[in-house]
Design brief:
single chain, alpha+beta, Herpes Virus-1, 3 domains, globular, binds zinc ion
Length: 151
């Protein structure tokens, strides 16, 4: 699945809602579409630390039934804060703790812990670009198969 993205990962654009200028200190970039947002413009009092997905992307992913660990807010909460959200029930807490053990959040990047090296988890919006570039270099069309090879 190659998504068209609205921005470039790692580059700030204007806030998608108010059109105002974004700075790293006061904005979040969506891991799904690379659009930038001021948290107050999203009318979210608290935007979770960790991978951020805008409401549009969250809705699309959920509708598509897509699974991505970075969209699992409870697990991400556990990775970032070291403990599951307070409202999680015991089963959820166990699940979160189990999965979160494999990840580390350094304040900007998510890492998948490996036996020898840790691997940076690439935001969804950047994955499409990586697949497209690899397809060009390898000289065959991309798609799900190529994505699997790159995983
Ligand atoms: Zn704004
Ligand atoms: Zn988005």
């Amino acid at each position: 699945m190659v998504r068209s993205t609205a921005g470039e990962w790692g580059k700030l654009s204007a806030c998608h809602i108010c059109g105002g200028r974004c700075y790293w200190a006061d904005s979040r970039q969506c891991w799904g579409c690379a659009r930038c947002y001021h948290p107050p413009c999203l009318q979210q009092a608290v935007v979770e630390l960790g991978p951020f997905h805008c409401p549009t992307c969250r809705g699309e992913f959920e509708a598509a039934g897509a699974e991505d660990i970075t969209l699992d807010l409870r697990v991400m909460h556990t990775v970032v804060h070291g403990q599951p959200p307070a409202h999680a029930n015991p089963d959820e807490r166990r699940r979160c703790e189990k999965v979160a053990r494999w990840f580390r959040w350094d304040g900007a990047s998510l890492w998948l812990l490996g036996a020898e090296v840790d691997r940076r988890v690439v935001p969804i919006c950047a994955r499409a670009a990586i697949v497209a570039r690899a397809a060009q270099e390898l000289g065959f069309p991309g798609g799900d198969r190529l994505y699997l090879l790159l995983k």
